[in-house]
């Protein structure tokens, strides 16, 4: 690791002051992504502001009947929280599908939102990568790209966002509360992560001097019909090749509302509300699910090694919706 | 031409509470908890496998929860209760999970074992493993290159039964 200086923030305001006061500074929470990347010189901040002592560690009801997750609540404490298990099992399952017991005890909800891509070239400082070094080129587009994106890509970057938690947050339409030098603002999860475009080095719309304070879940948790389906190379402890967070609100056999978010396919959790709406008022049949799956993958583009992901994503959507309908939870 | 390196930032003092004992150290801020344990305190029971959160050899308990000591800074763990493999035996008696590793022949080279043991204790504290599949999933953060998994699972089952009997 390159040398850096270290200070602790005791509250949100001092955290914002510290990050503005120091050059090339970063917050550190669980450390599981940042320190990992610093060890291999992909990230090299000159100062770390430890935010782990700030009182953002509770999960509380919101005025509108939803739940507020403090940014520093660990992933395990979130997934195992009684209210989350009961009212937002989709989120609970998605979190538990990721990483390991040890890592989830360290990883925080705020840090999870900001974890960086797992594109191998991003990790390999010997190769060009526009995300790591803007303007150097993308090694993946013509290189080995089996795990990389098929939707929303650009000629500059085809990386995916690796989080499981964020896919569930997208389906649940969570919003992110942040504080910066100019005060507080709320960023809907759909606007939080960006597509690569010609600025793949910028992952999210959070500013460098802003701190995430909490994540709000709306009251509607789809606790009856939901599934987090994660397809990966081994049964545990691997990033998703494709994942699907599916949630249905049913009126008998008729679908009142459907939510579908895809992971492992794009630079952000992928949703297409227009395609979801095709299911409104429809029966939960395989034919209907297949139509939506086709619509979701419209415009998808493979880069060679990852061509198979287009068909795989379609089948995963159908399977996830069937599981959600049949109340089969996570599998 | 190589640029001259800027002077290193100064060491910072930190008090770590390890296995019930306070230890005052002067550390470079970038020292991981794992390196502080092994290189500065010579508590070499905690192992370094990958140094990237992938193998679990460095697992220790912080306030009773299992974590990877390679992915946290020593500075970040001030005022926490840190338990390493060296702190588990009490009054010359092995911790029941340590004893169970011997009884079930759950290791070969032993390199992963300290991390496995801390992980089992953390898993039992979490209280979420109900089935065999749960055990396998929730222990997947501890890799064993000797492949002692079958017997490690037996240790976990025994530890879970013991905690339920209590
Ligand atoms: C071996 C391994 C396997 C993994 N497998 C999976 C997996 O299968 N699925 C999955 O989803 N994830 C997986 N992960 C990733 C893991 O979930 C993330 O590393 C973790 O969620 C990051 O959270 P953190 O608190 O440790 O973040 P940190 O590493 O502390 O921080 C990450 C970034 O977020 C910033 N930050 C943190 N908190 C805040 C805040 N409150 N406000 C503003 N900025 C902030 C930091 O400055 C930093 O840039 C894996 C990680 C490892 C090491
Ligand atoms: S896909 Fe993105 S992260 Fe991967 S090499 Fe190309 S620019 Fe870098
Ligand atoms: S050394 Fe920490 S997980 Fe491998
Ligand atoms: S006993 Fe040798 S690595 Fe596990």
Automatic annotation (TrEMBL), chain A:
The keyword Flavoprotein applies. It holds the Pfam family FAD_binding_5. It comes from the Bacteria. PROSITE patterns: FAD_PCMH (PS51387). One of its GO terms (molecular function) is FAD binding. InterPro entries: CO_DH_flav_C, CO_DH_flav_C_dom_sf, Diverse_Substr_Oxidored, FAD-bd_PCMH, FAD-bd_PCMH-like_sf, FAD-bd_PCMH_sub1, FAD-bd_PCMH_sub2, Mopterin_DH_FAD-bd. Keywords: FAD, Flavoprotein. The keyword Transferase does not apply. Residues 1-222 form the FAD-binding PCMH-type domain. This is Xanthine dehydrogenase YagS FAD-binding subunit. It comes from Pontibacter lucknowensis. The lineage of its organism: Bacteria, Pseudomonadati, Bacteroidota, Cytophagia, Cytophagales.
UniProtKB/TrEMBL annotation, chain B:
InterPro entries: 2Fe-2S-bd, 2Fe-2S-bd_dom_sf, 2Fe-2S_ferredoxin-like_sf, 2Fe-2S_ferredoxin-type, 2Fe2S_fd_BS, Aldehyde_Oxdr_Iron-Sulfur, Beta-grasp_dom_sf. Pfam families: Fer2, Fer2_2. GO terms for molecular function: 2 iron, 2 sulfur cluster binding; metal ion binding; oxidoreductase activity, acting on the aldehyde or oxo group of donors. This is Xanthine dehydrogenase YagT iron-sulfur-binding subunit. Residues 12-88 form the 2Fe-2S ferredoxin-type domain. Keywords: 2Fe-2S, Iron, Iron-sulfur, Metal-binding, Oxidoreductase.
């Amino acid at each position: 690791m390159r040398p850096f200086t270290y200070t602790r923030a005791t509250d949100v305001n001092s955290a914002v002051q510290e990050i503005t006061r120091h050059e090339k500074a970063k917050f550190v929470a669980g450390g599981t992504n940042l320190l990992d990347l610093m060890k291999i010189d992909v990230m090299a901040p000159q100062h770390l502001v430890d935010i782990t002592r700030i009182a953002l560690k509770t999960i509380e009801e919101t005025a509108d009947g939803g739940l507020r997750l403090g940014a520093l609540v660990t992933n395990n404490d979130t997934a195992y929280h009684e209210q989350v298990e009961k009212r937002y099992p989709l989120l609970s399952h998605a979190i538990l599908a990721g990483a390991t017991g040890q890592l989830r005890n360290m990883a925080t909800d705020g840090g999870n939102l900001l974890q960086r891509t797992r594109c191998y070239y991003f990790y390999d400082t010997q190769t060009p990568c526009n995300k790591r070094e803007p303007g150097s080129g993308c090694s993946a587009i013509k290189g080995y790209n089996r795990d990389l994106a098929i939707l929303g890509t650009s000629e500059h970057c085809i990386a995916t966002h690796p989080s499981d938690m964020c896919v569930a947050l997208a389906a649940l339409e969570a919003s992110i509360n942040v504080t910066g030098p100019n005060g507080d603002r709320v960023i809907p999860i759909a606007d939080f992560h960006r597509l690569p475009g010609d600025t793949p080095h910028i992952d999210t719309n959070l500013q460098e001097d802003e701190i995430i304070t909490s994540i709000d879940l709306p009251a509607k948790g789809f606790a009856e019909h939901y599934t987090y389906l994660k397809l990966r190379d081994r049964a545990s402890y691997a990033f998703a090749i494709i994942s699907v967070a599916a949630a249905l609100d049913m009126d008998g056999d008729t679908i009142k509302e459907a939510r579908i978010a895809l992971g492992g396919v794009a630079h952000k959790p992928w949703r297409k509300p227009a395609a979801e709406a095709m299911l409104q008022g429809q029966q939960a049949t395989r034919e209907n699910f297949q139509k939506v799956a086709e619509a979701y993958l419209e415009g998808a583009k493979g880069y060679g090694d990852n061509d198979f992901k287009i068909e795989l994503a379609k089948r995963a959507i159908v399977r996830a919706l069937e599981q959600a309908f049949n109340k089969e939870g996570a599998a | 031409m190589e640029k001259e390196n800027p002077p290193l930032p100064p060491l910072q003092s930190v008090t770590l509470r390890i296995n019930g004992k306070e230890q005052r150290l002067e550390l470079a801020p970038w020292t991981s908890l794992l390196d502080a344990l092994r290189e500065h305190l010579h508590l070499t029971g905690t192992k370094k496998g990958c140094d990237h959160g992938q193998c679990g050899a460095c697992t220790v308990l912080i306030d009773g929860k299992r974590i990877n000591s390679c992915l946290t800074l020593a500075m970040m763990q001030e005022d926490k209760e840190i338990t390493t493999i060296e702190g588990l035996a009490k009054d010359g008696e092995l911790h029941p999970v340590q004893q169970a590793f011997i009884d079930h022949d759950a290791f070969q080279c032993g390199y992963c074992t300290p991390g496995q043991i801390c992980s089992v204790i953390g898993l039992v504290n979490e209280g979420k493993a109900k089935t065999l599949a749960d055990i396998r999933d929730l222990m997947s953060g501890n890799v064993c290159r000797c492949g002692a998994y079958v017997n490690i699972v037996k240790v976990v089952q025994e530890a879970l039964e013991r905690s339920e009997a209590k």
